[in-house]
Specification:
The protein contains 15 helices and 24 strands. The protein has 637 residues and is of the alpha+beta class. The protein has a six-stranded antiparallel beta barrel with strand order 11-20-23-22-21-24. A five-stranded antiparallel beta sheet has the order 2-1-5-4-3, with helices on both faces.
């Protein structure tokens, strides 16, 4: 066949040589037609055929040409064949394969001929930004090998037209992707304005129905092995048992089962859809039920799984073409995570707990996640050890140090402060002056009472000298009264000086800045505690007071002596609770044994009362178990 083609080509060449005027006119007319077809190509396929024809016409000795183009998935398919589209050019496959392998121009001398000409296969790749997009292979009849490089250069220059085609197609594809992404983001923005799943799905359905010129848009999610219809555009309420709703749910399940988009038109409509090879019985039934011109469904995906579907109905003659389906799929992909998140938020807590528990169990018993299995094993061992091991059960509570005896120095009468040489924190000796009241009026009053007492004494002596018994009795009564007033005045003068009752430390009180100020009778001026005898006041929480009893031992760590635990013994448990920091506490008194430490009243720390020995797990979970018991008791009938 190749020989006959070569002979025919040689005969045609000789005929043209005999009549050069006819050959020139035919070639010119042929070139004009090829360039006209090339410039008016309506689509990529026509462009490829016209481009290959132009290239072959410009190459001297071209017998046949083959153009292979990448279909987008790494496979090269035939885009154009010259001169006859039905001609078998499989013999050029090896040259095309070698050109693709070498990614550069390829020349292969097929066989020589006795006439001085030889058949050669010439291939050239079409490379766009480092990606092989196609290859052109020509079957040539050349008379001299030096003509082949010029042919390769011609093919390289001509490949620029194909590069422009591919770049234009890429630009159109990118523009379409950008448009789809922009539309999908608009839909997502409209949906995120609503917190509830029902409101968000209805907003999406209404938005899509308006923007895509659809009569009805329905959204459903896959729940408990069936589709639950969430929203129908422009319908706030719809009957769950209506036959239309059932038909919509069947169409959604049909798309989910095939995990693919489906678009159909009624049999009465003309044309075919891009998904004719898929099962679409439920969609055809829905189109009949609602009398729609065309119906389409896309699957809502999240994390690679189908979670629902969207169904679209149109009354207009515009069917759902491939571009529209791609747009709907882009919207569904972007809405999938949002719908999944809102659906998960609408679930009951028990549903989420069961799902997470099931996932955890699968991870524990499955072949993956060895680190989780090791951690679970260590946790079981730790819990087992805590259930068996014993430890000291101790009650922890706040504590403060007080003096064993605490004496208050109070104002003996109303007066004014004259001196106050001590203040809180000072150490005083027994009988030391700690404060004095102004006694000037008291001294005058005592002097007056003394003078009156002396006068009454003289009167009494004069009456007794005169043996006037009645006058003596009267003066004697007045003398007793005056003596009592004198004793009272002298006692007030004596009590104006407030002395320390024993050796100790002033716990509270500071009047050094209040000299001369008035003071009321009975007001506490100072509190004094001994230096050698102390007690600890422990504030035990009401939840722990049942474990505490007199005679129990413990240890106290004060803030000032954090490195030295101080032993103590519980002395008294008061039955009266006091509120502090929002909780009830019981006052527990304890005696400390710390003769070698310089304790001071008011020191605070943390006390731990030793109760007994019990399991570590029971100790650490005691508070939780108590809370569970109280909660169960509160809500039990």
């Amino acid at each position: 066949m190749a020989t006959e083609t070569i002979r025919a080509d040689q005969a045609q060449t000789r005929e043209h040589a005999k009549r050069p005027d006819i050959a020139i006119e035919a070639t010119a007319a042929n070139d004009v037609g090829l360039w006209s077809d090339f410039s008016t190509a309506a689509n990529a396929k026509g462009f490829c055929r016209a481009w290959l024809a132009v290239q072959c016409s410009m190459v001297k000795g071209a017998i046949a040409g083959l153009l292979l183009v990448d279909d987008g998935e790494g496979h090269f398919s035939t885009a154009a064949v010259w001169p006859d589209p039905t001609r078998d050019l499989t013999y050029l496959a090896s040259a095309a394969q070698e050109t693709l392998k070498q990614r550069t121009g390829f020349i292969h001398q097929a066989w020589p001929s006795t006439a001085g000409r030889g058949n050669s296969h010439v291939g050239h790749p079409i490379d766009v930004d480092g990606r092989l997009r196609g290859v052109i292979v020509l079957d040539l009849s050349v008379s001299a090998p030096h003509e082949l490089p010029a042919i390769l250069r011609q093919l390289k220059w001509g490949a620029g037209w194909m590069e422009a085609l591919f770049r234009r197609q890429q630009d159109e594809e990118n523009s379409a992707k950008l448009s789809r992404a922009s539309f999908a983001l608009d839909v997502l923005a409209d949906a995120t304005e609503h917190e509830e799943l029902q409101a968000a799905s209805l907003a999406v359905a209404n938005y899509l129905a308006t923007r895509l010129n659809c009569r009805c848009v329905s959204i459903g999610l896959y729940r408990r092995d069936h589709i639950d219809l969430l929203a129908i555009s422009h319908s706030a309420v719809f009957q769950q048992k209506a036959h239309i709703v059932k038909a919509i749910e069947n169409a959604m399940e049909e798309a989910i089962d095939q995990n693919a988009a489906i678009a159909v038109m009624p049999p009465s409509a003309s044309g075919r859809t891009p998904q004719d090879h898929r099962i679409s019985l439920a969609h055809q039934d829905l189109a009949k039920v609602v009398s729609a011109h065309s119906v389409a469904s896309v699957v809502i995906m999240n994390a690679g799984q189908s979670i629902g579907a969207m169904t679209f109905e149109r009354d207009t003659a515009d069917a759902f073409d491939s571009r529209t389906i791609e747009l709907l799929e882009a919207v569904a992909v972007l809405l999938g995570p949002m719908f999944a998140m809102k659906a998960d938020a609408d679930r009951l807590v028990a549903g989420r707990l069961i799902r997470r528990a099931t996932k955890t169990i699968k991870a524990l018993v499955g072949p993956d996640r060895p680190s989780l299995k090791i951690a679970a094993g260590l946790l079981v061992v730790a819990v087992g050890y805590l259930a068996i091991a014993q430890g000291d059960f101790r009650i922890t509570a706040k504590s403060v140090v007080e003096g064993a005896v605490q004496r208050a120095a109070v104002a003996p009468f109303d007066g004014y402060i004259a001196t106050a040489p001590v203040r809180a924190g000072d150490t005083v000796e027994e009988g030391q002056l700690i404060a004095a009241l102004d006694d000037r009026e008291l001294v005058l009053e005592a002097a007056r009472a003394k003078s009156e007492f002396d006068q009454q004494t003289l009167r009494y002596n004069d009456a007794m000298a005169k043996h006037d018994r009645s006058a003596a009795q009267i003066v004697s009564a007045t003398l007793d009264q005056t003596q009592a007033q004198l004793a009272l005045a002298e006692d007030k003068v004596r009590r104006a000086k407030i002395l320390a009752p024993f050796r100790g430390i002033v716990v509270s009180g500071d009047f050094s800045q209040l000299l001369g100020s008035p003071i009321e009778k009975g007001k506490v001026l100072f509190e004094i505690a001994p230096l050698e005898s102390f007690r600890v006041i422990i504030q035990v929480d009401e939840r722990d007071i049942a474990y505490v009893s007199e005679g129990q031992n413990g240890n106290l760590v004060l803030t000032g002596y954090s490195a030295t635990p101080i032993p103590f013994t519980v002395k008294k448990v008061t039955p009266v609770a006091t509120a502090s920091d929002g909780r009830n506490h019981f006052r527990v008194e304890a005696d400390v044994h710390a003769a070698d430490l310089q304790l001071r009243p008011g020191m605070e720390g943390v006390a731990k009362i030793s109760i007994d020995r019990r399991g570590l797990l029971a100790i650490w979970t005691r508070s939780l178990l108590d809370w569970i018991r109280i909660t169960v008791w509160r809500w039990s009938l």
